[in-house]
Amino acid sequence: MEILDLKAEKRTAVRSKAVRKLRDCGQVPAILYGHKLDNVMLSVKEDEFGPILQSRTRMVLLAIDNKKESALIKDVQYDNITDRVLHVDFSRINLDEKVRIRVQLELVGESVGVKDGGVLTHTMKEIEIECLPTAIPEKIKVDISDLGKGKSVHVKELPVVEGIQYVSDADAVVVSVHRPAEEKVVPEEELMAEPEVITRKPKEGEEEAESGKKA
User: Do the beta carbons of residue 158 and residue 127 sit within 8 Å?
Assistant: First the structure.
């Protein structure tokens, strides 16, 4: 994965009013932490951080006071209405040390079960992986072409990606195709069973007449 340069400045503004003023000036509040070092309050230019987000890279080389630090974009907070970036968490990394991070799972192909009337449920949209920072993928693609009705794809069935280890529960369901609610599955033994013969219950008079005939 590509590492992009990003200039950052230390900040002292932490109160809400000061932070809002920072955003009004086109700055995004941020924090850098990790590796048992002190947390550093930062700000980055919104118009410089935006293209980095669009590139989908997860690593940056932060330039702070003429010093550069490799960092992972750990978390990005957005405004619920405008989608504007409100805050960024950066985590210090060593390019030779593995990191744990969540990446997107993308479904590809059209499920045969869906074509046959099944309903697709995409349970897990992201997955936690462990790998070297330089091996972090943008996304992991999951082919669901052969996924039939009543079938699921679990974490342990995800594609093998060189240099990547899945950390999430191996038995967790990623995606499944289930039958529509109105579609009832009839067990085979019921289909093979003999039909039940239902006879009409005789009326009271008919019952006495039958008794007389037998006598």
Answer: yes
- Structural domain boundaries of the chain? 3-93, 100-182
Any residues with CB less than 8 A from the CB of 145 and at least 6 apart, and which?
Answer: 108, 109, 110, 111, 112
State how far the Cα of 69 lies from the Cα of 196, in Å rounded to an integer: 79
Q: What is the CATH number of domain 100-182?
A: 2.170.120.20
DSSP secondary structure string for all residues of 102-121? EEEEEEES--HHHHTT-EEE
Return the amino acid letter for 54: Q
Side-chain-side CA neighbours of 161 within 13 Å: the count stands at 21
pLDDT tens per residue, range 26-83? 999 999 999 989 999 999 999 999 999 998 888 999 999 989 999 999 999 999 999 9
Element (H, E) at 190: helix 188-192
Closest of 103, 101, 75, 108 to residue 89, by C-alpha: 75
Q: Which of 35, 183, 59, 199 is nearest to 117 (CA)?
A: 183
The burial of 37, by beta-carbon neighbours within 10 Å (0-12 exposed, 13-18 middle, 19 or more buried), is given as exposed
pTM for this model (two decimals): 0.71
Residues forming beta bridges with residue 51, ordered by sequence position: none
Instruction: Determine the CATH number of domain 3-93.
Output: 2.40.240.10
Q: What is the mean pLDDT of residues 128-134?
A: 94
